[in-house]
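A reminder from the course coordinator: this example appears on the midterm review sheet, so study it carefully.

Given structure:
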């Protein structure tokens, strides 16, 4: 496993070692010891799997009281994946990084606690799995609207407006988020 991109401190794009032959391939997408050597020393407690159609945009989500670190990977299709620093007092507050994750490139993105996460589906369908360091806590869920103009995230929209949940459409901008609804940066 190696780090192939590191735009924001704490966010990693990881490339697993792939062993392939005429039968197919094998890869190790998680190994606690190897992750710890990369600086990702977390205990993961929940694995999720979602399936979305082309043009679906999910996010930008984070949990406040029970913050989640995530390892995101695509097992079918391709997504444009985004991590946004929402930690009050962080030197990179309001900055984001993005990467195309796909079943073909087998890259993964590690997103630490205090970052909002979202993705846009580029293929006909995408199946995403992600490991979480905390369990889902609905009362702690918060979000930032995907098209916050102050952020300037270059979502690669395919002409039409993205398909969003009602909840994701209702999120406010980062600047209008009450300070109490943002995690605090702890260096």
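Designed residues:
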């Amino acid at each position: 496993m190696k780090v192939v991109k590191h735009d924001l401190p704490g966010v990693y794009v990881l490339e697993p070692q792939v062993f392939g032959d005429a039968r197919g391939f094998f890869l190790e997408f998680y190994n606690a010891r190897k992750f710890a050597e990369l600086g990702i020393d977390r205990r993961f407690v929940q694995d999720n799997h979602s399936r979305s159609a082309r043009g679906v945009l999910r996010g930008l989500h984070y949990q406040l009281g029970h913050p989640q670190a995530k390892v995101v990977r695509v097992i079918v299709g391709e997504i444009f994946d985004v991590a946004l620093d929402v930690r009050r007092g962080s030197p990179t507050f309001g900055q984001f990084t993005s990467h195309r994750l796909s079943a073909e490139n087998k890259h993964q993105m590690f997103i630490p606690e205090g970052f909002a996460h979202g993705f846009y589906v580029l293929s006909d369908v995408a199946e995403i799995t992600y490991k979480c360091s905390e369990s889902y806590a609905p009362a702690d869920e918060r979000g930032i609207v995907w098209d916050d103009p102050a952020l300037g995230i270059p979502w690669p929209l395919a002409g039409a407006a993205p398909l969003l949940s009602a909840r994701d459409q209702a999120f406010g901008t980062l600047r209008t988020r009450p300070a109490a609804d943002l995690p605090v940066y702890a260096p």
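DSSP finds two helices and 13 strands in the chain. The mean pLDDT is 95.
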